[in-house]
Amino acid sequence: MTLYNILVLQLLSPSLFNVFINLLILRLRHLGLRCQVGCHFVGCILYADDIILLSASVTGLKHMLKCCYDVSCELSLKFNWSKSYCFFVGKSDKSASADLYLGPDSIQWSLRAKYLGISYHTGKKLTVNTDFMKQKLEFFYGL
């Protein structure tokens, strides 16, 4: 591969990723699980390559995970299932221990979640920690 080809791929990579990830969003929306705010679909929240799937039920989440796996196979993309986990908000019940899979890989349940520097912990109630000091230090001082 020539240096020119490598540079073109590096320049196009974010745009190509956006095209591919848009297909995933459209497929998730068309599942009809109706995770909405007003008339806007909010069943998945994305920032770069970090994805949150939101579902009102474990059954809906199973369908969403299957959709993610199917789209990733079609597009030759791979999810890092070892960094993936399930997190619930609300009353705990038997469904919070249901086995969930991303293709052949099991996704574990967790009482804690972290997304974009915000930590969430569920228990008797949801707690949120928004301490951005570590991110500020990394940004300003490269620590």
Number of helices: 3
Tell me the radius of gyration: 18 Å
Tell me about the largest β-sheet.
3 strands, mixed
Helical fraction: 25-40%
Structural class, judged by helices and strands? alpha+beta
Mean pLDDT: 81
- Strand order in the largest sheet: 5-7-6
Shape call:
globular
Helix-strand pattern: HEEEEHEEEEEEH
Q: Give the N-terminus to C-terminus distance in angstroms.
A: 35 Å
Our estimate of the beta-strand percent is 15-25%
Residue stretches low in confidence (pLDDT < 50, at least 5 long) are: none
Q: Tell me how many strands there are.
A: 10
Descriptive terms for the model:
143 residues, alpha+beta, three-stranded mixed β-sheet, three-stranded antiparallel β-sheet, globular
Architecture overview:
- The protein has 143 residues and is an alpha+beta fold.
- Helix content is 38%, strand content 23%.
- The protein has 3 helices and 10 strands; from the N terminus they run αββββαββββββα.
- The strands form 4 sheets. Strands 5-7-6 form a 3-stranded mixed sheet. Strands 8-9-10 form a 3-stranded antiparallel sheet, with no helix packed on it.
